[in-house]
Structure formats: C-alpha cells, structure tokens
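Q: What residues go here?
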C-alpha cells in the first residue's frame, strides 16, 4: 500500500468548493485545511505509485480552483 500526501494551493474564494469536491473522492482518506503556502493537505492511499499519480493527474488537478499541488509519497512500515 502506498500513501500520498498532496499539498494543494487553491485560488482565493474557491476553498469551500475545492474542499467539498475533494472530500467526495473515495481515494481521499483524510483532508485538512492549512494556513500558509498551501491551503489543503489530502491523504490518499493506493496500491502503487502509478495509481497515486493517476489520481492526482485525472481527479485532483482537474478540479477548478486548484492552482498548484506538491505530492509527498511514502509506504506503510510494519
């Protein structure tokens, strides 16, 4: 299982709209507002790195109001 943390920069006045759209994605298992350079952090879980990339490209970056993302990836340690 691969974990991705996506830092999301949102254009002003789109915060609630983007938050609501992201919260409806089944791949987003946690979503938290932030203050500072990024506006939200989303935690996503998938089977592999390729799937994480596809979610970010096809489902997250296509949401209106998202300016930029930065993704941090990792794996679960047992």
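A:
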């Amino acid at each position: 299982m691969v974990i991705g943390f996506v830092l999301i920069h949102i254009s002003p006045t789109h915060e609630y709209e983007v938050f609501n759209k992201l919260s409806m994605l089944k791949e987003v298992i946690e979503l938290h507002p932030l203050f500072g350079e990024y506006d939200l952090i989303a935690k996503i879980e998938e089977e592999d790195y390729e799937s994480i990339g596809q979610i970010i490209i096809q489902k997250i970056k296509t949401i209106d109001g998202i300016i930029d993302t930065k993704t941090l990836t990792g794996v679960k340690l047992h």
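A: Context that may help when evaluating the design: The longest strand covers residues 66-75. Strands lie at 2-10, 28-33, 40-46, 66-75.
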